[in-house]
């Protein structure tokens, strides 16, 4: 009985941050027509930041794009502001990927670009997925 309680507690802790908030569907670029993605956004009541869980599906390995790239990068662009790199999102053998990020922005675009390197500081590659978030 104690192990069941531990499992249920663990599942609750893991699921709770993403159990509410808003879900936004990402739009795919014509270069990756089968790709899809979602952004689950939830405002942190303690500090006002936005916690995001970004999931992508059917996103081709970036080396298979034309032109060939090496990595997918997630960006946040606040309304009227410059894009901020949030991190790289990997794609597994099932063409799925996931990234959890936190932003202080309140009304913004989330987009994924294919880039040559994780060290880029500005989006320069093909924008493959995009969503507007305003939780």
CATH topology: Immunoglobulin-like
Q: What general form does the structure show?
A: globular
The number of distinct helices, counting runs of at least 4 residues, comes to: 1
Q: Report the biggest beta sheet as strand number plus sense, adding barrel if it closes.
A: 8 strands, antiparallel
Helix and strand composition category: mainly beta
Roughly what fraction of the amino acids lie in strands?
35-45%
The total count of strands amounts to: 8
End-to-end distance, in Å? 39 Å
| The CATH fourth-level homologous superfamily | Superoxide dismutase, copper/zinc binding domain
What is Rg?
16 Å
Report the CATH architecture: Sandwich
Could you spell the SSE succession in H and E letters? HEEEEEEEE
What is the mean pLDDT? 88
Low-confidence stretches: 4-18
- According to CATH, what is the class? Mainly Beta
| Helix residue percentage | 10-25%
Strand order of the largest sheet: 5-4-7-8-1-2-3-6
Kindly give the count of domains. Answer: 1
Q: Quick summary of this structure?
A:
The chain is mainly beta.
Output the keywords:
globular; 135 residues; Immunoglobulin-like
Can you put this structure into words, describing what you see?
The chain is mainly beta. It has one domain: Superoxide dismutase, copper/zinc binding domain (Immunoglobulin-like, Sandwich), CATH 2.60.40.200. It is built from one helix and eight strands. An eight-stranded antiparallel sheet has the order 5-4-7-8-1-2-3-6, with no helix packed on it. The radius of gyration is 16 Å and the shape is globular. About 11% of the residues have low confidence.
